Amino acid sequence: MTVIGLHSFNSQILNELYSSQNYTGNMAFSGIGLYLLLSAINFGLSGRSFSQLSNILGQNYHELFDTANWRNSERAYECLDRRYLAEEISSMNSVVFFSGDIFDYYKQISGLVCSLNHIKINDSDPEESACRLNKWISQTTFGSIWNMFDHSMMSENIMIFIHTLFFRADWKTKFNPALTKHELFYDDKCRPLKVAMMNQRSFYPIYDSIKDNFQILFKPLAHPYFLAAIVLPRVGHTIKDVLKSFKFNEMKNYFQNSSLKYADFKLPKFQVLSHADLVQPLTLFGITDIFERNHSGFGKMTYRNIAKIAVDELGLREIEFSRAIPEESISQQYLFHVRRPFLFFVYSSIDNHVFFSAIVTNPNEA
Predict the structure, then answer these.
(1) Average confidence score pLDDT of the chain
(2) Is 118 exposed, middle or buried (0-12, 13-18, 19+ CB in 10 A)?
(3) What torsion, rounded to 10 degrees, do the Cα atoms 66, 68, 71, 74 define?
(4) What are the annotated GO cellular component locations (predicted)?
(5) Model confidence over 256-284: pLDDT tens digits?
(6) Of the four listed, 192, 210, 240, 268, which is most buried by Cβ atoms within 10 Å?
(7) Beta carbons of 268 and 185 less than 8 angstroms apart
(8) pTM reported for the whole predicted model
């Protein structure tokens, strides 16, 4: 899939997921997880199922069927590059639980290229199978999610693909915890909330064009070429409005057209945990056969995307606060106060890719 195609696909999936929540509430989504897991699924398909998914991914995966040269294929390198980049800044896990049989060659390719784990379950004991799934999910989400599956969801010849991701912001320049104060934030129902508001004054690349209904502040992460993009709707506009106009494939232009401004920046601490069933959104893109028992050729498939994003002052590395700049030396301060619902993206400027996305309407909800 080209970068532009992947951006467009992820943007539409994000819109569809938020629409399924009636355009309200928090949400997190791993675009890179979607790409890697769909690639892993496609390795094992054939016929119409393969064609449907290949049309969406926009890539030729036939070269991975060459048992002698697949390691040197363009597709393998592409998946590995994106996987390694994502693993630098997050904890990712992918798994397929299956009750039938899987070819060893598929296990080898999907494991090495997409880091897909393969766990066989006993479909004659649905309670034990559900317990194994829930235990794996709990372990990979650090105990954040329990009992996602029950025995009634287990069936014969089932395949359950799950991707989990945990991201914690690791800032290049940390917020000073001593400056964090409780301040008001207004949720998507315009209700006032007391939140832990981080404060920092420094120079930031800020995109602010009068033709757009949003502003973007880019804050560098500790990992080179990675940035957090905080997208704030203009007054009078909602997240839904912004999602209609904001373009993932324009992120590079937003960043390049930003101006370095000295800003009084306020951002609430937040955690967003989201688990989405992606079957319905994917069927809207014509990916249908793999989810229909009578057409898939292997039984029933389920796909869950689980993402947790945590943002606070310090991140993971040694403390390095921003250096104070005498305010009298700054002719004008730009106010970027995040007091209402916003979007949060993790963006790589080196390959123009949005790795993770979050919609935050209530910072206090975990």
Answers:
(1) 83
(2) middle
(3) -40
(4) extracellular space
(5) 999 999 999 999 999 998 888 888 888 88
(6) 268
(7) yes
(8) 0.85
Could you tell me the two tokens for 196? 């832990």
d(CA 226, CA 26): 23
Q: What is the pLDDT of residues 280-300, one digit of tens each?
A: 888 887 888 777 766 555 556
List the beta bridge partners of residue 337: 266
- What's the rounded mean pLDDT across residues 304-312? 87
Name 135's bridge partners: none
